[in-house]
Amino acid sequence: MSPSSPEAGRSPSTRGGLATLGPGALRLRATLEGVFTGWAAEVGADAVQYPPLMRVEDLHRLDYFQNFPQLAILGAALTEEAAPQYATGGPREASLPAGHLTEASYALPSAACYNVYLDLAGRTLTEGPHKVTTVATCFRRETHYDALRRLLGFSMREIVCVGTRDEVLAHLELFRKKITGYLSELGLPVEIEAATDPFFDASAGRALMAQLFPVKEEFVFDGSLAIGSLNFHRNFFGERCEIRTADGEPAFTGCVAFGLERWISALTSHFGLTEDELADRVLATGRP
Amino acid sequence: MSGATEHKPAGFDAVVRYLLTKRPELTSIDPDLDLVENRILDSLGFVNFLYVLEEQTGEEILMEHVTPSDFRTINSIRKRFFHESE
Q1: Is the pLDDT of residue B18 over 90?
Q2: Which of A53, A81, A83, A165 is deepest in the core (most CB within 10 A)?
Q3: CA B7/CA B79 separation, integer angstroms
Q4: A204, A212, A234 ranked by CB distance to B71: nearest
Q5: Residue A97 burial by CB count (10 A; 0-12/13-18/19+): exposed, middle or buried?
Q6: Residues of A in contact with B36 (CB under 8 A)
Q7: Cβ(A148)–Cβ(A265) under 8 Å?
Q8: Segment holding A135, helix H or strand E
Q9: Residues of B38-75 as b/e, b for ≥16 C-beta within 10 angstroms?
Q10: pLDDT in tens, A208-221
């Protein structure tokens, strides 16, 4: 990139939860990706790219619409009946009416790791834990969007472990240490918070829930921005996708997830440096 | 675990029946099975489970007076909330 190129100095911009990143932000993102994929390689995770759309029938298998009906964004086409109107310069509204659309059998992914479990469906893991890393553009319909902090479409890097309960918990614990150590060296202040369901007001109840059902821990910057998370799904995906460990039991799964635009947002707002300077700082961190 | 079945109070059976409705594919639950790890109890259903437990024991459950292990297995639930030994 030439310093005088027209795009060089642009800051990320967002509109309606959709972001445009210029060369600086992209270099920072690629540098962060280098760190995360380096960690993935260290634990023996294979890099895989999955399809950009998910099948609705596959998501049913994971109770997706039961658990997250509000987040889903579906893909549909124009019906054969409606298409000719558009081809001849018909309606030009900002949204197309549902009556003009086909039934939706595809959905935009809302997390990168669902495809890992669907791809492993029916398998028995005879050679120890199966680790995969993947990155996906994920989509979530939210009630509001907030610059790079909360986007409709965003990039999620995940490092997933499928194996026995102990193997998965060891994977999550290892990354808890790796990420904490890295952030500390980088100088980005982050709290680890247990995410719980908001049913209890009393702190005793929340504490009990967090101990009984540890499912998610988040790395939270500035009190509200989760830039990464550790997720333990128990054997839910193993059961639903019939993935078994060598002993024939449903596999346990867990994943480490990084929201790449959120990292850019947190780094930029905390250090007040340019993206290029931040990329250099990220590169220098963690080196002996 | 044996010999305790004839002494089970009615409320305890109702609690076990309630847990069984969470996993219709099961016909019984091993009394030492970890209810959390096997997702018979999950975070979404836990509040309702507390309600069932309070209804069947006739006692309010104060969060300050319980620990995670009280809810782990059918045996631990019986011991803690129905005042029976294993």
Answers
A1: yes
A2: A165
A3: 12
A4: A212
A5: exposed
A6: 212-213
A7: yes
A8: strand A130-139
A9: bbbbbbebbeebbebbeebbeeebeeeebebebbbbbb
A10: 777 777 788 999 99
Please, is A24 exposed, middle or buried when counting C-beta atoms within 10 Å of its C-beta (0-12, 13-18, 19+)? buried
Helix H or strand E encompassing A278 = helix A275-284
Mean pLDDT, chain A, rounded, equals 92
In this complex, which of A207, A213, A236 lies closest to B36 when CB atoms are compared?
Answer: A213
Give the type of residue at A215: V
Question: What pLDDT shows up at residue B64?
Answer: 83
Question: A42: closest CA among A34, A54, A53?
Answer: A34
Question: How high is the ipTM of this complex?
Answer: 0.71
Instruction: Give the number of C-alpha atoms closer than 13 A to the C-alpha of residue A189, restricted to the C-beta side.
Output: 6
Helix (H, G, I), strand (E, B) or coil at A27: helix
